Amino acid sequence: MTKTIAVLAGDGIGPEIVAQAVRVLKAVAARFGHDFRFEEALVGGIAYDETGHPLPPETLALCKRADAILFGAVGGPKWDTVQPPSLRPELGALLPLRRELGLFANLRPARLYPALASASALKEELVSGGLDILVVRELTGGIYFGEPKGRTDEGRRAVDTCIYSVAEIERIARVGFESAVGRGKRLCSVDKANVLETSRLWRETVTRIGAEYPEVELSHMLVDNCAMQLVRDPRQFDVIVTENMFGDILSDEASMLTGSLGMLPSASLGVGTIGLYEPIHGSAPDIARKGIANPLATILSAAMLLRYSLGMEEAARTIERAVESTLAAGHRTADIARPGEQPLGTEAMGDRVLEAL
Fold first, then answer.
1. Is 118's pLDDT higher than 80?
2. CA separation for the pair 239, 356 (Å, rounded)
3. Which residue among the candidates 26, 132, 160, 252 is catalytic per the annotation?
4. 26 is catalytic
5. For the whole prediction, is pTM greater than 0.90?
């Protein structure tokens, strides 16, 4: 059966890194006898320039009928002053896509490969042997989506509203627990329950759902303490579940434990099998079109696409093993290269992964 993959490369380095992930997916399809149809569409700043909107109707329609979405990155200084702000790439493309497709769960694995221990921001003794942390971030609620929001008092006062319902917390909590069941059976729920009412509701609800998963060890941690513990003793964590803004911040922090933002993939999932898969980094306009961006996060996002949307576990593991062996062989892009090492470019790193396959 043919599987349709919507390819939304976007802005900046998006087209360069997505191209390498597509190459890998095509190679995997040939190896395992799968049939993938790749359909490209505009999104982000380039879509705004060409159509007047960062998420054209035809792009949204493609995403709704596709089996999965491979996403690059959107935005850049060129579009930071677009008015109204709802037409800026980040606000006008990614957030509406998540909302329209019901993608409420963002899975962000932060894995430090042993070969990259020296690239971690932490001392090697804290990360020797590698790290494997999964951040489960609620994606469609909280302060990013709560109303009212905006400016009042002639622009001198700004309002953002954090709102969560029991139903929203229950469904993301279950994703966290189910993820923990398949891993180390430890779940840390992160909130700010000593200050915020939404966090108190969060903690109460996660605790109640935890009774359904007696095999999982549940702990609670305040977000400021979690930020500290991630750099003090990261190996204490297995799965972290948290609300939208906290997850955004903590997963970026966790990325530096792995050596580079260029190493972290992500999956945004909903109730069905449709998912959006993207590296967690941005469009990096300063290095766009230079051919030096790290494509590994996007390639690993493609592996997650195979696992969660297409149910192709062995194909997903094949890509992940190829990335690991590529790193173990000493191949590096500039963001993870050691001093004095000659780094590979984007396409050359894609070549090495394809060879490892």
1. no
2. 29
3. 252
4. no
5. yes
